Amino acid sequence: MKKRLYKSSTDKKVCGVCGGIANYFDVDPTVIRLIWVIFTLVGGSGLIAYIIAAIIMPDEM
């Protein structure tokens, strides 16, 4: 069985990107969200990456 990366439809705050990444790597979504916030605050690239991921990642079915 092949793992696929999808936006989460059940564990989402904004678009489900962090929830989907957490499901893919089998970690707590809060950890992914904290890492994403750190990237956003440190260099600002986290916000751009989140927007791109929200557009590119397919929705969970």
UniProtKB/TrEMBL annotation:
Entry keyword Flavoprotein: no
Entry's localization field: Cell membrane
Protein name: PspC domain-containing protein
Coiled coil: none
Organism the protein comes from: Roseburia faecis
Keyword Cell membrane: yes
InterPro entries: Phageshock_PspC_N, PspC
Keywords: Cell membrane, Membrane, Transmembrane, Transmembrane helix
Main localization category: membrane
Membrane-spanning segments: 34-57
Membrane topology: Single-pass membrane protein
GO cellular component, as recorded: plasma membrane
Ranges for domain Phage shock protein PspC N-terminal: 3-60
